[in-house]
Specification:
The structure is a homodimer.
Chain A: H1 3-10, H2 30-39, H3 41-52, H4 64-78, E1 82-86, E2 93-98, E3 105-111, E4 130-134, E5 138-142, H5 150-166, E6 173-179, H6 189-194, H7 196-203, E7 208-211, E8 221-224, E9 226-238, H8 239-242, E10 250-251, H9 261-270, H10 294-306, H11 309-316, H12 327-336, E11 339-348, E12 357-358, E13 361-370, H13 376-389, E14 396-403, E15 406-407, H14 413-424, E16 429-432, E17 435-438, H15 442-445, E18 453-456, E19 461-462, E20 470-475, H16 483-505
Parallel strand pairs in A: 3-6, 3-7, 7-18, 8-16, 9-17
Antiparallel strand pairs in A: 1-2, 2-6, 4-5, 5-20, 9-13, 9-14, 9-15, 10-12, 11-13, 19-20
Helix pairs in contact in A: 2-5, 2-16, 3-5, 4-5, 5-16, 10-12, 14-16
GO molecular function (chains A, B): metal ion binding; peptidase activity
Keywords (chains A, B): Hydrolase, Metal-binding, Protease, Signal
Protein name (chains A, B): M20/M25/M40 family metallo-hydrolase
């Protein structure tokens, strides 16, 4: 989920101000909280390491229940008063509350699942949480989930437990929701939200954040005002469902007089994008696509003006953007265009060389990225209708997860509090009109909750969804927060939410 | 290679004559040879079992050298006087000769490689060669290579060693050539044939056979007069070669402004077959395709008249032929139409569910089946030109093996001797105009050798390229030869080749 964010961050304004949070009048006990965070450093790193040892991988059936129970114990341990596992038809969610007797309530969203990993591709074991030197950055922890999202989440919980340890009253009440299926596009998270107790608690909150390590190498941070929606699905062509071609793999010579489910899939796929192999060509796909607003273009242009096209291309391993567009146009397109992507193709023999089979089954793994005002239901229905109209109605559309796009008002209390927190911490900030990456914010920003929602947090990491995922623990760059700084920023944010809310009421 | 043959055999005339070879005048020592074959039964079965224990799998780097050495030792042990491993740029070949001081020479072709296998799919271990009961058939050996082709080959060698054991002079001299890459379409076998010593030896032979277990469940046998050619290749689309899209897997959200090698491959594949997902649409593909002759259609019609369409469909797991054609038309098409088949598709994430990547590489595993007068070089050149003309010139065409179609004259000495042998053995016989499956017979039937060539042998088996491959060892059906009967039929065939040659010279 984070890789696009990292890219966007890298393109943003690289202002060069020193970081360092200072207490404001009206932040009672802040110094004690900061001291508690620092005193807790070694234990906190150990808690992150322990958590990394227990990977929950939704689509591989790994540690579903265990991950949920562990999540529950982590929030109870941090100071939440009530926490429960919320069963769903898939991996369970977790719900918790912390009533500090404050006037205002903030909600926080966690994911406790991680992407799967191939240990052979890692320089240090993915579940060990080893601390290594990263030149130019400092000491980092290597592990699956380090940045996506156990690391930032551990920093957030460290802030909460520091208030408890320091005997300081939390400035806001907290509502906590977590899921274990973020990496498969949150198929059952709406069930967690629909739980009456969870929903009632969330309705009291003035906004919701997902902790993230959002600083660029220059220390700059980008506040995401929106993100595309994502729908993950598999298109499966099979002789069995088609009623043509074989119901299993047969000898390839039979291609002469038997139909091929693999070719059937290729023909179907071919209709989904235009001849350029890029532009979605599903009937009615652009009907509800809203163009970027002038303000959104302004924000993107500011990002691009500060970005480095050559660096971006190097990171991505590309030589040109789609249609050889210029950097600005390519970034408008990144935010504005819905996509139909092939994540994977699987059919028949997939080993080295060849094998003389005519496969009975072929699968394309697809993800759709949606922009406002597209919805998940609309996208799936249009895809199915498009296929059916062209004689591909037999192809299974197996939706494994997804959600629509999310957008939050830059004038909301949440964004205002985030901006104020960063200003106080002297962390240079830009706003991102819309991330091309996705997170299930629409669960909060859409009906019925319609809350402000966004990723928030300092510090830095990388390698989400890739080998050698890392989180900065001790920063060698004064502009970028290490682990303790990340936790302190969350503590300051809690103060700021209360302050901003108080201002708004005046 | 055999599965199509099995299907064709099943469709052929099911005449019901008792089998049982009888000596002809002028077959000196035949009874001693038959006795020696029977006395050798247990040892021969053990030799087959031992051979199965050593699988050579060309495309997995398994037992290349070991398989060749073992093959060499098997033929020396059977009575060949000279045998050598013939190095190639791939898996080695084997060449051997047996000079019996006879007037005529027969050549024999072996493959010592096998298809790979997934032990978990087998009911008994694929390398154990366990003997089990097969209802309606008798005692069979289960093992990878049992029928394709170590079993029939072992029966052939048992015949040869029986002449030696019985002290009976072989009626013909023998030339032996073997390869270890048949299952990957024989990419280096032409190098074996091009060896001057091998070529000179083969030029003395009046024909060449590949041992096979060719009887149907009714005991009927089909003589293959021809077979389609096959070219195996992988089409690889990559950001690296394309110069567009990423040179590795990147986050799928980038689909908005980055090109996709997977979509590029889909668009390229889409041009290779017509809208029906079946008919080859490569430019000029049918230019050299010769229609079936009246005689070929007559042979196919005879097969079809004796076949059972419902059984064929059940075996294949299909409900209809391409275009809902009738059984006869579908069988004409099977023999006549060149094909472009997708063996496999591989790109990006191939595990369960999805993963948010935009893959840097996509591969389609393709096989082309060729009919006279198409050639391998022509097919590959036309495919490349077709792709290049449509803007897909960057897609790698990685040819991993292949050869053109083969055809043998039904009036050749070899086919005449085969027919006479079967008539004497009272095995009902039909001729197949052309197998849709392939074998590298063109190496022999094409220039420069232009020999008659064909698969030949009695007995029965199944499961080539599938789990639980088997060969009939002790037949419970008097119409079908068990292992000893298979060896005896080869002995009789050697007598018959000498006799037919003598007749031709008169």
């Amino acid at each position: 989920m984070r890789s696009t964010k990292v890219i966007l961050a890298a393109t943003a304004i690289a202002a060069a101000l020193a970081t360092g949070a200072t207490a404001k009048p009206g932040d009672p006990g802040r110094e004690k909280v900061v001291a508690a965070i620092k005193a807790d450093h070694e234990a906190a790193v150990e808690r992150l390491r322990d958590w990394i040892k227990l990977p929950t991988i939704a689509n591989m059936g790994i540690n579903h229940r265990e991950g949920a129970e562990y999540m529950r114990s982590l929030v109870l341990d941090a100071g939440f008063q009530h926490a429960k596992v919320v069963p769903t038809d898939g991996v369970p969610g977790v719900f918790a509350t912390l009533d500090a007797g404050a006037k205002d309530t903030l909600a926080v969203y966690f994911m406790y699942d991680v992407k799967h990993y191939e240990p052979s591709e890692w320089s240090s074991p993915p579940l060990e949480g080893r601390i290594v030197d990263r030149p130019g950055e400092g000491k980092v922890m290597i592990g699956r989930g380090a940045v996506n999202q156990k690391g930032p989440e551990t920093a957030f919980l460290s802030a909460i437990r520091a208030f408890k340890a320091a005997g300081v009253k939390l400035p806001v009440n907290l509502v906590f929701v977590a899921e274990g299926e973020e990496e498969i596009a949150s198929p059952h998270f709406p069930q967690v939200i629909a739980n009456p107790e969870v929903r009632a608690a969330l309705e009291k909150a003035s906004g919701i954040i997902i902790p993230s390590a959002g600083q660029s190498v220059d220390g700059q941070m980008t506040l995401l005002l929106g993100a595309k929606g994502a729908v993950e699905l598999q298109l499966i062509s099979s002789g069995e469902k088609w009623g043509r071609g074989p119901n299993k793999d047969i000898h390839s010579s039979l291609m002469a007089n038997v139909d091929s489910p693999a070719w059937h899939l290729v023909k179907a796929l071919n209709t989904l994008v235009a001849e350029d192999g890029h532009t979605p060509a599903i009937d009615g796909w652009f009907e509800n696509v809203k163009p970027l607003t002038a303000r959104q273009k302004e924000l993107i242009a500011a990002d691009v003006a500060a970005g480095n096209e050559a660096d971006d291309m190097k990171v991505l391993g590309i030589k040109r953007w789609y249609k050889e567009e210029d950097y600005l146009t390519a970034n408008f397109r990144l935010a504005e265009q819905p996509t139909v992507n092939i994540q994977g193709l699987v059919s028949g023999y997939t080993g080295p060389g060849g094998k003389t089979v005519l496969p009975g089954r072929a699968e394309a793994k697809i993800d759709l990225r949606l922009v406002p005002d597209m919805t998940k239901d609309e996208a799936v229905a249009k895809l199915k209708a498009h296929l059916a109209k062209r004689g591909f109605g037999d192809i299974e559309v197996n939706v494994s997860g997804g959600y629509g796009p999310t957008q939050t008002d830059e004038n909301s209390l949440l964004i205002k509090a985030e901006q104020a927190t960063l200003a106080d911490a002297k962390i240079p900030m830009t706003m991102s009109a819309r991330s091309a990456g996705s997170w299930p914010g629409v669960v909060f920003t859409g009906p019925p909750l319609k809350m402000a929602a966004g990723q928030f947090g300092g510090g830095r990491g990388g390698g989400a969804h890739a080998p050698n995922e890392w989180l900065l623990i001790e920063s060698s760059n004064p502009k970028v927060l290490g682990f303790d700084g990340q936790a302190i920023l969350y503590a300051d944010f809690l103060y700021e939410v209360a302050r901003t809310a108080a201002k708004a009421k005046r």
